[in-house]
Write a structure and sequence with these properties.
Blueprint (H helix, E strand, L loop, with lengths): L5 H5 L7 H15 L9 H15 L2 H10 L21 E2 L13 H7 L22 E3 L4 E3 L4 E7 L1 H6 L1 E12 L5 E12 L8 E4 L15 E7 L5 E4 L2 E8 L1 H6 L1 E5 L6 E5 L8 E4 L12 E7 L7 H13 L11
Parallel strand pairs: 4-8, 10-14
Antiparallel strand pairs: 1-4, 2-3, 5-6, 7-8, 9-10, 11-12, 13-14
Length: 330
């Protein structure tokens, strides 16, 4: 995917103020608007300017864009890493309310999946109240603070056992000179046992402050699991590829298999083929009911790295009438 340099499109420096970005966009919009400029390529430049401004005018989108593109080099294909936005705090329902499909594939890849609404039924209480109700009095205006959102990564083990973790979130703001800066804040977070990917942990009162006597908003942490070298997760079920020797698969065996809660003995039926799935009921993510754990058999061949090993393979070749390609008609 091609990287789009929004600063270059608008003709501004990367440290431009928000006002400078606005002025640059307005100038380009007047110059290349299809109603006033019929030259070839004018409409494309107008659309590019609109896309660039959609990102750079918003401190949250701009900070995310800056971070994601920080290590990009000219000529490289652009591939955002998975969960690149984890730990980034934003307000409202997401980074953008724009229809990502009207912009480029680059915009869609970055921001298309980041629209959202209020947090759903998560942990720690009801969903947030938004920036809605408030009221006037004779002396001052009261309004509840806006809810904030962030994606966070946790280990699979934390979902099995629950945990208390310190998490650092990054949030953008505009300083007194009009520049977007990113600051950090550290929170103590209780991860409830049984939390699943995509669920929200609600931290009451940790959103934006209210106005007057208005209550602060809430902070919703959307859970993502960090990549695990052994397990993969689908909903509340957990999967692992379980290596077995050819004789264990052919003859049957009881083998030790890992689970996030500790090793168990698993009985492999005779004549098991690679890819066979063994279900360990209730060994998935805890809950009511809990998920299951599935061990997918992966047959591992011993290497023919010694004379004895080669002799055994040659003996199998001579004595076993076995054609692995018989099902292909050859």
């Amino acid at each position: 995917m091609e990287y789009k340099d929004y600063y270059k499109i608008l003709g501004v420096e990367r440290d431009a103020t928000q006002d400078e970005i606005k002025r640059a966009y307005r100038k380009m919009a007047r110059t290349y608007h299809p109603d006033v400029n019929k030259e070839e390529g004018a409409e494309a430049k107008f659309k590019d300017a609109g896309e660039a401004y959609e990102v750079l005018k918003d401190p949250e989108k701009r900070a995310a864009y800056n971070e994601l593109g920080a290590n990009w080099q000219q000529g490289q294909e652009f591939r955002p890493p998975p969960n690149w936005d984890a730990g980034f705090e934003f307000s409202g329902g997401g980074y953008t309310q724009a229809d990502a499909s009207q912009f480029s594939d680059f915009f869609e890849k970055m921001f298309g999946g980041m629209r959202g609404g209020r947090a759903g039924a998560g942990f720690g209480g009801d969903a947030g109240h938004g920036a809605g109700h408030g009221g006037f009095s004779r002396r001052e205006f009261h309004a509840q603070g806006q809810d904030h959102h962030a994606k966070v990564e946790i280990d699979l083990k934390d979902a099995y056992e629950g945990a208390k973790r310190q998490m650092t979130l990054r949030f953008p703001e505009v300083d007194e000179h009009g520049h977007v800066v990113v600051k950090d804040r550290t929170l103590n977070v209780t991860i409830p046992k049984g939390v699943r990917e995509g669920q929200h942990i609600r931290l009451a009162g940790q959103g934006a402050p209210g106005m007057g006597k208005g209550q602060p908003g809430d902070l919703y942490l959307e859970v993502r699991f960090a990549p695990d070298p052994v397990y993969r997760v689908e909903g509340k079920d957990v999967y692992l590829d379980l290596p077995v020797a050819p004789w264990e698969a052919a003859l049957g065996a009881s083998v030790k298999a890992p689970t996030p809660e500790g090793a168990v003995m698993l009985k492999i039926p005779p004549n098991s083929a690679a890819g066979r799935t063994m279900r360990l009921k209730g060994r998935g993510i805890p809950g009511k009911p809990p998920g299951d754990l599935f061990a997918v058999l992966k047959i591992v061949l011993p290497p023919a790295d010694s004379d004895k090993a080669k002799e055994l393979y040659q003996q199998m070749e001579r004595e076993l009438a076995f054609n692995p390609r018989s099902g292909l008609g050859v």
